[in-house]
Amino acid sequence: MQWVTRKHVHVNRTATVWLVRRFLDPRAEIRFVEPGEVEGVQRRDGALGFDAPGARYPHSDGQGRCSFEQLVDERLAGDAALQALARIVHGADFPAEIGTTPESAGLWAISQGFTAVAGDDHEIVERAAFLYDSLYAHLRRRAGDMASPESPETPEAPKTPENGGGS
């Protein structure tokens, strides 16, 4: 499936790409275009647009949800860790709501450096996947959901002398 969003990604768009590739369509083709082009690409090419004017999943819908929240609510509502992550992304994406969760301010701050450490949007979303994987693993552990069959497994920490492993 093809997805399309605005160029110059930050919090919501990196999180949404991660969500799409991790849970909805691992082979998704993501296109980053000018904001005014999203609706046309969506219409012309049958892509699913997000976080842009005229997109199927707009920056903020009628309920005030960012596109990440919209997709979680619509397609993965039963995953408590993703619901918690959606609240974090919401707070980080909407400056007036940064206090929504304690993690939102940190996620916002990290996202402000994305363009300084990566060459383009594709590299940003690839590199940011580790951040979202880690946060999701933490939220699953916090929710007591590490064995959920529809959720990817979290790798075991390497053995070190401090945790009973080799030297």
Domain tally? 1
Largest sheet: 3 strands, parallel
Order of helices and strands: EHEHEHHHHH
Q: Helix count?
A: 7
What percent of the residues sit in helical stretches (DSSP H or I)?
40-55%
Which structural traits does this protein have?
3 strands, mainly alpha, 167 residues
Describe this entry's structure for a reader.
The protein has one domain (2-148). With 167 residues, the chain is mostly helical. The protein is globular. Strands 2-1-3 form a three-stranded parallel β-sheet, with helices on both faces. β1, α1 (11-24) and β2 form a beta-alpha-beta unit. The protein has helices spanning 11-24, 38-45, 67-75, 80-93, 102-111, 114-117, 121-143; strands at residues 2-6, 29-33, 48-50. α1 runs parallel beside α3 (67-75), α1 (11-24) crosses α7 and α4 (80-93) crosses α5.
Task: Write the topology of this structure.
Layout lengths: L1 E5 L4 H14 L4 E5 L4 H8 L2 E3 L16 H9 L4 H14 L8 H10 L2 H4 L3 H23 L24
Parallel strand pairs: 1-2, 1-3
Helix pairs in contact: 1-3, 1-7, 3-4, 4-5, 4-7
How is this structure best summarized?
With 167 residues, the protein is mainly alpha-helical. It has seven helices and three strands.
